[in-house]
Design the sequence.
């Protein structure tokens, strides 16, 4: 007999990072993607969740404006950062250019742990839903 809808456990979907020929699980359903703008040297952060529809951005934060970083209408300044909710459709994957030009590369954080990619030039890194049994947790490799 099936469990009533109220009591079913939602299956956690792991998020994988594919970079440098390796695949690691970096999060269960939610993570923050952060980087420092290569020209303005300002930190940018985005909170993402993995749903049945794909990767969905739920909030973005930027600590200033400048080249290609205009603060959108409706953004609120709180705790030193402009916060807003981008209106992007869910995505199957995020591709992160690894030019080596982004100061410090990309930082992907979840559950108090972070992974960095893109500090040096290389092929793009990808963040997407993990296939069943595809990867070990980042701290296990």
Sequence:
């Amino acid at each position: 007999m099936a469990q009533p809808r109220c009591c079913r456990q939602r299956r956690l979907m792991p998020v994988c990072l594919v970079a440098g020929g390796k695949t690691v699980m970096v999060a269960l359903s939610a993570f923050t993607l952060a980087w420092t703008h290569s020209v303005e040297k300002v930190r940018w952060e985005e909170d993402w969740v993995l749903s049945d529809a794909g990767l969905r951005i739920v909030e973005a934060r930027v600590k200033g404006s400048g080249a290609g970083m205009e603060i959108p209408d409706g953004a609120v300044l709180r705790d030193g950062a402009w916060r807003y909710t981008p209106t992007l459709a869910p995505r199957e994957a995020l591709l992160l250019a690894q030019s080596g030009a982004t100061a410090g590369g990309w930082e992907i954080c979840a559950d108090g742990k972070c992974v960095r990619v893109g500090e040096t030039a290389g092929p793009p890194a990808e963040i997407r839903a993990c296939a069943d049994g595809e990867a070990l947790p980042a701290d296990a490799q």
User: Anything to note?
Assistant: The chain is about 0% helix and 50% strand. The first strand starts at residue 14 and ends at 19. The chain has a mean pLDDT of 81.
